[in-house]
Specification:
- By secondary structure, this protein is of the alpha+beta class.
- The protein has three helices and eight strands; from the N terminus they run βααββββββαβ.
- A four-stranded antiparallel β-sheet has the order 1-2-3-4. A four-stranded mixed β-sheet has the order 7-6-5-8.
- Helix 1 runs antiparallel to helix 2 (about 40-60).
- The radius of gyration is 18 Å and the shape is elongated.
Length: about 140
Amino acid sequence: MRDDEKRYQTGFDAGMGAIIAVAIAPGLVIAVVSPEGRTVLGITNALLIGLFWYLYRTTHYTFEEHALRVQCGPIKLAIPYEDIRGAQSSASLMSGYAMSLQRIELEYARFDSVLIPPADRAGFLDELRRRAPQADIGPAD
């Protein structure tokens, strides 16, 4: 990472933990009720847990020289600072590059937006204000 770059890790909260638990719970219940399916369900749950862990470890938001880079696993998005229109807190349940439900909705280009939950929301928004002074950026809440 270069000196002018700053990286923010994704946040993680109980709401996302609950969503992950709901995704894994049916397999655990079926494995208890139906012993013949334990191996397949055990492997499936291990893969799900591995996927969530991989996404958590690889989700971050990097302020680069000319753009904000959003990465979640293999998915990468670069948003030029001049395209950023605004940012505000959001509790939306829509899908995003997020491992937390305490998100920031970042609006860019003409009609695009992305939901991200940096662990340090206040620091992220301060850096965004510095790099995209034209944008209407709300408080961190």
